[in-house]
Amino acid sequence: MAEVTDAAAYGLAALGGSIRALRKRQGLSVGALSQRADVSFGALSQLERGKGNPSFITLNKLAEALGMPLTQLMHGAHRRDDMVVRAGERQQLPPMGDAGDQPLRELLTPGMHASLQVIRTVLPRNFSNEGKAFRHLGMECVIVEAGLLSVTHGDRQVELGPGDAMTYECSTPHWWANAYDGETVVLGAVTPLEV
């Protein structure tokens, strides 16, 4: 068996961490992503722990199930500057709602496995992810740059305008709707917690 180099082990661990973080952001269990991607539970679990030797076909199935091109999934696994994210190098995040116009979601921090993630989201007109509410561990703070954002957090609904901010526990189901007749731009800071 070929020896695994430190660089290869780092790459596999980073890839596994990215897949785990993306899965959790979409509110999927290992079993749910395994079924969606048609990849065995054991293979996915092993990959998320930075183990194994996933095939190209397995990685492609996982990328499709997470709603992104394989190149984008792999890009997050490569070593990059751990302090600077250039405007043209932002990692795009998977869709947050059902079919139709999807928001542009870009990670402004260097990686999905960091203890702090800052995300810039551009919500198209009439967007809502009410049918796909988020629920995960951690805290989130959002601030509206432009437009109007309606945030539903549990039983509470709040409308935020430019400059308004809201901070909430992510373990309570929450969802967003664009309450503006154009695009709404939101900056969000998330402290995801591992389980």
UniProtKB/TrEMBL annotation:
InterPro entries the record matches: Cro/C1-type_HTH, Cupin_2, Lambda_DNA-bd_dom_sf, RmlC-like_jellyroll, RmlC_Cupin_sf, TransReg_Diox_bact_type
SUPFAM superfamilies: lambda repressor-like DNA-binding domains, RmlC-like cupins
Domain of life: Bacteria
Keywords: DNA-binding
Annotated HTH cro/C1-type domain residues: 19-73
Cited Pfam families: Cupin_2, HTH_3
Protein name per Swiss-Prot or TrEMBL: XRE family transcriptional regulator
Native species: Arthrobacter flavus
